[in-house]
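User:
Note these tokens:
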Amino acid sequence: MIDERRRGFLKGVLGVGVAGFALGSGIVPFRVEAAMAPSAADWPKKAFRTPGVDETISELYGMDAEESDKISVDLPTIAQNGAVVPVTVETTLPNVTGIALLVAENPNALAASFKIPEGTLPFVSNRLKMAETTDVVAVVISDGKAYKATKNVKVTVGGCGG
């Protein structure tokens, strides 16, 4: 019985010592920060408050978007719970610098806006909140031009398909 307590105590002391060494030497950081924390100046406040898809794209990027078949939007055709609609966007367009997700019938169309760093795969995944059946628009900025792809999602009440 005493040997078990002693063994447990020594394991605990050894564990704390190793953790202390790892933290103190910098092997394990004390804190983790976001890679690219946005500043208040980077926040597209007005775009998040603009109703309508075309108006939001214009406010966010200062240009109109043209339809593209090089954007893949993966969404359920029927969403049984409009509070959490999964969406994935990827593209084969070159030099992508931004991807945005818009929900046409939401009071504010812009649901999410992503800056894509150079050398990063142009892929985003998110969950959207949708109150009713509507179009979801993915906007991709590639080589300084805006492209979009649209997919309609039917939101059912209570998940019964009706």
